[in-house]
Amino acid sequence: MKISPTDRLRIGVAAAALIAIAVPATGQDVPESLLPPGFGDAPAPTPTPRPSASAVPGGPNLAPPAAIVQPIPGLPGATPTPTPTPSASTVPIDAEALRQYELPDFARRSLTNIGIAGQGSDFARDAFGGTDGPWLERIMRSLDAPVASRWVSIALRRALVADIDTPGDVDGADFAAERAWLLVRMGEGPAARALVQSVDLDNYTPKLYQIAMQALLATGDPGGMCPLVASAMRVSNERGWRLANAVCLGLKGEAREAGRIVDQARRQAPGGGAIDVALAEKLVGKGAQGRRAATIEWDGVDRLTAWRYGMAAASATPVPAELFDGVGPQVRYWHATAPQFAPNVRLGDGEFAAAQGVLSSEALVDLYAQLLADEDASSAQTALASDLRTAFTGNDDQRLTMLRQFWEPAATTPLGHARRVLTARAAAMIAPVADHVGDADQLIASMLTAGLDLPALRWGSVVPVGSDGWAMLALADPMGRSVPVGAVSDYAGQHARKGQLLFAGLAGLGRLPQDQVQGLARDLNVAIGARNAWTDAIDRSGVRGEAGTVLLLAACGMQTRDWRGVSPVALFHIVAALRAAGREGEARMIAAEAIART
Fold it and tell me: Which H or E run includes 174?
């Protein structure tokens, strides 16, 4: 929904007034991160030293963690000493590389705005407004991903890949690196790869080289490293680039030189590093004139690293399932989006990726459809694919029978939510009649996972007031109709936790009588008047219309893998700020998701 600047200002003022309501605070009820350290095998980007990297005045003073600078996971060699990231103009690119580049000036891409979603993006160039660039980079770097909300993840991905202005006080390539690094940790490998490749080679900085390798490993694309290898080896001591050089030489047909580098790496590899060299050697052997044959033995390998996953994916080498248990869930999302692996191998991870928003409803349906032609699919997988086909092609009774089977896992679990994502469009085909009211809550929840708000609203005259379906429709309604306070109170009386979330969502969307918000907040013990650095920052960003900053801070408020860790207060500020920033569509879906997944 497009909102004019005048309307945005009016909404912002109203939101600010609502946020400032004096409600007795029961404490700063904003969730802290419940996550363990993320997928720490991959290095965090080396921070660029900048003068006066202070927080936005009055904003959250979230100090960045100490820089984590490591060699590429699993490769031999000691951890290098952190080095400052120079500006793009000081990166030593050799003359030969520049001659090969040979782009005319009009074809070169500027660092003032970087992104892969251009004219089709609905994010304005100033999505991060005038927010301090180093502060944004610190927030991105310290964010624990993935987060609780599927819709927050989807919206944040869209903001991170959009063609947006680089803040004036950071280097454009470094800012792109921070965006890509967050996307990698969110499990969005293809988006991260596209973003790093949207920067011209002669503008690369050491930080961007570092993150480019991570993005390319996440997508199993060593060929994408080849244009970077020569210049990367001049600015980076990471031994991963040396093996990447061998792979690229092998792909070019220079098998002898590639073999020499591989043999040297094998001699220098410490215990446990043999698998890393073997995986690179396998790719070298696939090049022209490649005569090396490498057998990959996972026996004795006790951990999966970014290098091991990326090289295995590049050669379509199956990774033992138990190794995925020791890494963060984002690695499963990388696996889900890797087309070189068979559908039957990717299905389980594909469902988890869909629950997180990495795969869309349509993409998950396509993955299921491929099972029908996959000779290696199990009988159980083939049966699921056949049942899904019936859910899309049968009559309403047949559809409902199949849908109920898919919905057996609880909606609060990742698999249960994934199954509702899977069936969203089949659910939209069910007629909204009284005979089907017993399934209405699940049908509405399923449709809203794919943003199908208009088909879901057809059930408005069918679902009883006080049901979960009614609550989700009250939040998802694009018409913004007001909801009686008494109905919210009655719902909260039956569903205490959901009642708090319903109130928070409706209050943030401005759908409750303003003069009654304070009393209802007190009755439901939702301290929307509590203030801290995070609430101040997200409220201010919303009023300024900085949608990108709001979404980044929204993710900060949802640093937990489970909706049970998201407080109603956090939901209120996220929804109100998104609405004020002109992102009411996402705000509605996030609020409805809270009911569906609690």
Answer: helix 172-186
Residue with tokens 């002109």: 582
Residue 522 is which amino acid?
Answer: R
CA distances from 15 to 87, 122, 540, 574 (A): 40, 22, 10, 11
Collapsing DSSP to helix, strand or coil, 8 comes out as helix
Q: What is the dihedral of CA 150, 156, 160, 164, to 10 degrees?
A: 140
Residue found under tokens 């890494």: 327
Overall residue count recorded for the chain in this entry: 598
Q: For residue 19, what are the CA distances in angstroms to 193, 209, 574?
A: 39, 42, 11
CB of 216 closer than 8 Å to CB of 181: no
- DSSP secondary structure of 403-432: HHHHT-S-TTSHHHHHHHHHTHHHHTTS--
Within 219-356, residue ranges assigned H as helices are 226-235, 240-251, 255-268, 274-285, 306-314, 329-336, 343-356
How many Cβ atoms from other residues are within 10 Å of residue 42's Cβ? Answer: 28
Distance CA 145, CA 168 (A): 26
Q: How far is CA 325 from CA 50, 320, 322, 332, in A?
A: 39, 10, 5, 9
Q: Supply the pTM of this predicted model.
A: 0.84
For residues 97 and 182, the answer to whether their CB atoms sit within 8 Å is no
- C-alpha to C-alpha distance for 197 and 364, rounded to whole angstroms: 26
Helix ranges restricted to H, 378-513: 379-393, 396-406, 414-422, 424-427, 440-449, 453-457, 468-476, 485-494, 496-509
Q: Token digits for 268?
A: 């220098």
Cα distance between residue 554 and residue 517, in whole Å: 22
Question: In one letter, which amino acid is 151?
Answer: W
SS3 436: helix
Separation of alpha carbons 485 and 495, rounded Å: 15
The 3-class SS string of 148-170 reads: CCHHHHHHHHHHHHECEECCCCC
225: nearest Cα among 329, 107, 306: 306
Looking at residue 437, its amino acid is V
H or E element that contains 114: strand 113-114
Amino acid at 42: A
Query: Do the Cβ atoms of 407 and 426 come closer than 8 Å?
Result: no
Whether the CB-CB separation of 309 and 319 falls below 8 Å is answered with: yes
Tens-digit pLDDT string for the chain (598 aa): 444 444 443 444 344 444 433 333 323 333 333 222 332 334 444 444 333 333 333 333 333 233 222 333 333 333 333 333 433 334 444 545 544 556 667 678 889 999 987 655 789 999 999 889 999 999 999 999 999 999 999 999 999 999 999 998 999 999 999 999 999 999 999 999 999 999 999 999 999 999 999 999 999 999 999 999 999 999 887 889 999 999 999 988 888 888 899 888 888 876 667 899 999 988 887 755 556 666 888 988 989 999 999 999 999 999 999 999 989 999 999 999 999 999 999 999 999 999 999 999 999 999 999 999 999 999 999 999 999 999 999 999 999 999 999 999 999 999 999 999 999 999 999 999 999 999 999 999 999 999 999 999 999 999 999 999 999 999 999 999 999 999 999 999 999 999 999 999 999 999 999 999 999 999 999 999 999 999 999 999 999 999 999 999 999 999 998 999 999 999 999 999 999 999 999 999 999 999 999 9
H-helix or E-strand containing 365?
Answer: helix 361-371
CA distance 375 to 377: 6
